[in-house]
Amino acid sequence: MEKSLIEACRNKPLPDVLEALGAERDKSDRSNWKTAQGGRITIDKKNEVKWYDHHFGKGGGGAIDLMMHLKGCNFKEAVEELLHLPPRHANTTRKNPDAAEKVQPIPEPVEKNWPIVRKYLIEKRHLKADLVDNLHAHGSVFSDNFNNVCFLSQDKKGCELRGTGDTVFHGYRGEKSGFVLHAADGVTEVAFVESSIDAISFCQLGFKGTVIAYGGQAIKRCTEEAVRHHAEGKKIIAAFDNDKAGNAMSEQLLAAVPAAERKIPKGGAKDWNEYLQKKQAEKDKNKGISTTKADSVGFGM
């Protein structure tokens, strides 16, 4: 590909890229954008070349870097996307902040890429092979065309995406909806976590109740579900991340359901997958430590 085309793509105005991808500009601060992936991105006011994603703590420069970050694609794919970028203001103005999520459809499963995703979940995320295979067999977890892990919501209306490459990517497609792992028979506990990977990790760590994740900080939806389940006589657990945002979400959920319980991962881990990985590292050093069987939790959709 000609260097001039690559440079033209790299120098495309970042607001054009963000708007074309369904992001919404902050009315009070025009340098901030709410992306369809759920993160807040700030563009440098001076030249609009540099950008920073506050949700992932990652920044970069130029439209190619931004496209790779938001789409979870490689360099060549990002350039192709930018070459075919629709003109600015082609999107309809949206008043509802959730509307941006509905712009991009749920990816189709690409089975040839599943081995890459499976390896990522098992080797990098330390999820059990039989657990991962069980979810894949049910269609709850699959790979898309870009080797992203796709976590399909229970109602099949939404899908959380997680990149498996070197570029950090966390996105969402379709309507915000819960990824649900169902409880073992007779268990009436319901836990709320932030990501689908955390939901699976929480179960692998021994939790036998229902686990629900909305693929990010969706406290309104979590609270509504928590109130509903509590009214049915179920015990509610706020198992959000051990950080400022997770604590704030927990406080809101506990305010709505005062009888709820807060659970956080130990050992300074930020989330349940990080805690799972730390436990796995300990296990590798101390052979003989037992782990929870994957079949202790049901995964019916």
Structural class: alpha+beta
- Please report the number of helical segments: 10
User: CATH first level of the largest domain: which class?
Assistant: Alpha Beta
The gyration radius over C-alpha positions equals 20 Å
- Could you report the average pLDDT, rounded to the nearest whole number? 84
Ends: how far apart? 45 Å
| Number of individual domains | 2
Provide the spatial order of strands within the biggest beta sheet: 1-2-3-4-5
| Helix-strand string | HHEEEEEHHHHEEEEEEHEHEHEH
Main sheet, how many strands, which sense, barrel? 5 strands, antiparallel
CATH fold annotation of the largest domain: Dna Topoisomerase Vi A Subunit, Chain: A, domain 2
Q: What is the CATH-assigned architecture of the largest domain?
A: 3-Layer(aba) Sandwich
The beta-strand count equals: 14
Roughly what percent helix? 25-40%
Low-confidence parts lasting 5 or more residues at pLDDT below 50?
89-103, 289-301
Anisotropy-based shape: globular
